[in-house]
Design goal:
Helix content is about 50%, strand content about 15%. The protein has helices at about 30-40, 55-60, 65-70, 80-90, 105-115, 130-140, 160-170, 185-195, 205-210, 220-225, 230-235, 235-245, 245-260, and strands at about 15, 20-25, 45-50, 75, 120-125, 145-150, 175-180, 200-205. The strands form 2 sheets. A 6-stranded parallel β-sheet has the order 4-3-8-7-5-6, sandwiched between helices. A two-stranded antiparallel sheet has the order 1-2. Helix 2 packs across helix 3 (about 65-70) and helix 11 packs across helix 12.
């Protein structure tokens, strides 16, 4: 049985990344915003995620996490290695490589998304109470007419889910961003959607902390030089050491095992 992410039926063009045995939706920030705008206007529910090496590892290691991505409508390129491997495949097929605009993180589109005229109710799930409040305070300055519901997620316990689901259901957001880290945020998103959460649902990792100013954000030049991961590792070695220095090798072993290569 294949573990490659299937192509859901939606308006985003999916592309295979054979080296990682998964699929992505190569979109720029502007294209993501257009899809959010369209979904809100048409009252459609879409699930928006991103793929990087961390998610690729979990995709192959965790069946529940893989199920989340198989439900996703959009999985943007949230990591330079994923874009590089996709471009390698495009070159092999005689296609033009995609420019760096197609590598986007959640912080690239969230500020503009909350300013969209179609978006008037935004739910922010995740981060500490202080970071969540600061995020909303800053977001409110960008979009004063938008109503925000903040639900901190740190600390988190499974018994919090019922209360969160009730609050979200009563608020009926058009855009919900869930920043709890992988794979917790994905399991929360699936559970909330199974309870009827509509609108645009996006898993955004540390974007809430970053946009709140509680977590350092890699400078733009590090992305252009493809050393963003190194900057993040130096900024938080204990938190990210395993992800950047160990997980890539675990991913290689998983992929080799699935292909029958010892």
């Amino acid at each position: 049985m294949t573990t490659t992410q299937p192509t859901p039926t939606n308006d985003a063009a999916w592309a295979d990344v054979p080296a990682l045995e998964l699929a992505v939706t190569p979109l720029t920030s502007e294209e993501v915003l257009a899809r959010i705008s369209s979904a809100v206007e048409d009252e459609r529910r879409i699930l928006l995620a991103g793929h990087n090496l961390h998610s690729a590892y979990l995709f192959h290691a965790d069946p529940e996490f893989r199920d989340f991505y198989q439900k996703a409508d959009i999985a943007v390129l949230d990591g330079w290695p994923v874009l590089a491997l996709l471009n390698r495949e495009r070159r092999r097929r005689g296609q033009t490589p995609l420019p760096s605009d197609y590598r986007i993180g959640s912080t690239d589109w969230i500020p503009a998304a909350i300013e969209l005229p179609e978006v008037s109710r935004v739910c922010v799930v995740g981060a500490s109470e202080a970071a969540n409040s600061k995020f909303i305070e800053r977001a409110q300055q960008l979009a004063p007419a938008t109503v925000f519901l903040g639900i901190p997620g740190n600390p988190w316990a499974p018994e919090h889910l019922d209360d969160v689901a009730t609050k979200v259901d009563e608020f009926s957001p058009q855009l919900t961003v869930i920043g709890m880290g992988m794979p917790l945020q994905e399991s929360i998103a699936v559970e909330l959607m199974s309870r009827g959460l509509g609108g645009v649902v996006a898993t955004v990792g540390g974007a809430i902390d970053q946009l709140a100013g509680e977590q350092s954000h890699a400078p733009r030049w590090t992305g252009r030089l493809r050393v963003e991961w190194l900057w993040r590792l130096a900024s938080s070695p204990r938190r990210l050491g395993h992800r950047y220095l160990v997980e890539p090798f675990k991913l290689i072993r998983l992929l080799r095992a699935k292909r029958g290569v010892l």
